[in-house]
Write a structure and sequence with these properties.
The chain has 73 residues and is α+β, with helices and mostly antiparallel strands. The chain has one domain. It is built from one helix and three strands, in the order E-E-E-H. Strands 1-3-2 form a three-stranded mixed β-sheet, with no helix packed on it. Strand 2 and strand 3 form a beta hairpin. It is globular, with a radius of gyration of 13 Å.
């Protein structure tokens, strides 16, 4: 799930702030631990990046199954 204005696009997540003098890749979030889970992210939308990104919530097994069921239809 993602905001409508990002529907059909892929974005990457970085801890870097939008105007830092570093590449976004240097602080890209590793989402390996969240595979098969739904997560909620807070950050600032850029072109192909969400800047200052942080995971603020994650689903458990039951909610993940419900979300997958709802969005697979």
């Amino acid at each position: 799930m993602q905001p409508e204005n990002l529907a059909g696009t892929s974005v990457r997540l970085t801890r870097i702030q939008m105007q830092e003098a570093q590449t976004p890749e240097s602080a890209e979030l590793d989402l390996t631990e969240y595979e098969e889970k739904e997560i909620m992210i807070r950050g600032h939308e850029g072109d192909k990046w969400i800047f200052s990104a942080e995971v603020i919530d994650q689903s458990g097994l039951i909610l993940t199954a419900v979300v997958k069921k709802l969005f697979s239809q």
